[in-house]
Amino acid sequence: MMHKIGATAGKIWNYLNQNGEVTALKLKSALGITNTLLYMGIGWLARENQIVITEYSKGYKISLKKW
Predict the structure, then answer these.
(1) pTM
(2) Whole-angstrom Cα distance, residue 44 to residue 17?
(3) CA distance 1 to 29
(4) 67 touches 38 (CB < 8 A)
(5) Spelled out in words, what is the top-level CATH class assigned to the domain 2-64?
(6) Pairing mode, strands 51-56 and 59-64
(7) CA-to-CA separations, 41 to 26, 57, 67, in angstroms, rounded
(8) C-alpha–C-alpha distance, residues 15 and 43, integer Å
(9) Which residue ranges make up each domain of the chain?
(10) Which of 31, 42, 55, 61 is deepest in the core (most CB within 10 A)?
């Protein structure tokens, strides 16, 4: 399972790198993954301090952290 979560985190990172900030719902739809796998992948990237999560009225926006 850890491999699957890590692979999903990689897909999320690549999507954000190519497309910039996106809502969690759009990210889920674009990658065709379940909510569970989406949030596990986001958690992986958050733990590694790779992303910024911003709350807005309808949910969350995710973007890569700028160094």
Answers:
(1) 0.91
(2) 16
(3) 21
(4) no
(5) mainly alpha
(6) antiparallel
(7) 15, 22, 21
(8) 16
(9) 2-64
(10) 42
Task: Answer yes or no: is pLDDT of 2 > 90.
Answer: no
Mean pLDDT over the full length of the chain = 95
pLDDT one-digit tens code per residue, 6-25: 999 999 999 999 999 999 99
27 and 34 Cβ atoms separated by less than 8 Å: no
Structure tokens at 55: 């709350």
Q: Which residue has tokens 């996106």?
A: 22
CA 63 to centroid of chain Cα atoms: 8
Beta-carbon contacts of 63 under 8 Å, excluding residues fewer than 6 positions away, are 16, 20, 21, 22, 51, 52, 54
How far apart, in whole angstroms, are the C-alpha atoms of residue 6 and residue 20?
20
Q: Which residues contact 40 (CB under 8 A, 6 or more apart)?
A: 5, 8
